[in-house]
TrEMBL record:
Organism superkingdom: Bacteria
Pathway: Alkaloid degradation; nicotine degradation
Keyword Iron-sulfur on entry: yes
Source species taxonomy: Bacteria, Bacillati, Actinomycetota, Actinomycetes, Streptosporangiales
Swiss-Prot/TrEMBL keywords: 2Fe-2S, Iron, Iron-sulfur, Metal-binding, Oxidoreductase
Alphabetized GO MF terms: 2 iron, 2 sulfur cluster binding; metal ion binding; oxidoreductase activity, acting on the aldehyde or oxo group of donors
Keyword Lipid biosynthesis included in the entry's annotation: no
Name of this chain's protein: 2Fe-2S iron-sulfur cluster binding domain-containing protein
Domain 2Fe-2S ferredoxin-type as annotated: residue spans: 2-78
Annotated InterPro entries: 2Fe-2S-bd, 2Fe-2S-bd_dom_sf, 2Fe-2S_ferredoxin-like_sf, 2Fe-2S_ferredoxin-type, 2Fe2S_fd_BS, Aldehyde_Oxdr_Iron-Sulfur, Beta-grasp_dom_sf
Length: 163
């Protein structure tokens, strides 16, 4: 067992984990933070996406011990008091979901994606860094799958917030 300390959604947490425990399992099973979802558990679906020091990661592929000292933000940490994060509100306005299972990961990913774009980071695949049009949003969000196929609403919500 290794003791690790993290800030999770602004709260200081300390927990003992075996070296093989994923960050996703540590969040869900040890800390009761169940917003990040386990879809594939192998880095293919994005349902487990969280922010680590503002960077989006697949928590199922991350070992908890690697995140000692980090600031972890999940869907539970995005709202400010009673005010939803603008992306949360936009997903509701634009019906960017059906069953909702992928939504926490979609929104965390979109938060980081918009920050990446604003910082001028090019898309990893297209190497474009231009206007955040529909094609660019779809490319930059391609790591987050929606089995219900709510992609049109997801893209519209992101475009709305991107301005
Ligand atoms: Fe982590 Fe699918 S559960 S990518």
């Amino acid at each position: 067992m290794t003791e690790i300390r993290m800030r999770v959604n602004g709260a200081a947490e300390s927990l003992d984990v075996e070296p093989w425990v994923s960050l996703l399992d540590a969040l869900r099973d040890r800390l009761g933070v169940t917003g990040p979802k386990k879809g594939c558990d192998q880095g293919a679906c994005g349902a487990c996406t969280v922010l680590a020091d503002g960077v989006r990661i697949n928590a199922c592929l991350a070992l908890a011990v690697q995140y000692d000292g980090k600031e972890i933000t999940t869907i539970e940490g995005l709202a400010t008091g009673d005010d939803l994060h603008p992306l949360q509100a936009a997903f509701i306005r634009h019906d960017g979901l059906q069953c909702g299972y992928c939504t926490p990961g979609q929104i965390c990913s979109a938060v980081a994606m918009l920050a990446e774009h604003r910082a001028g980071m090019p898309s990893a695949v297209t190497e474009r860094s231009g206007e955040l049009d529909e094609a660019e949003i779809r490319e930059r969000m391609s790591g987050n799958l929606c089995r219900c196929g709510a992609y049109n609403g997801i893209v519209d919500a992101i475009k709305d917030v991107a301005g």
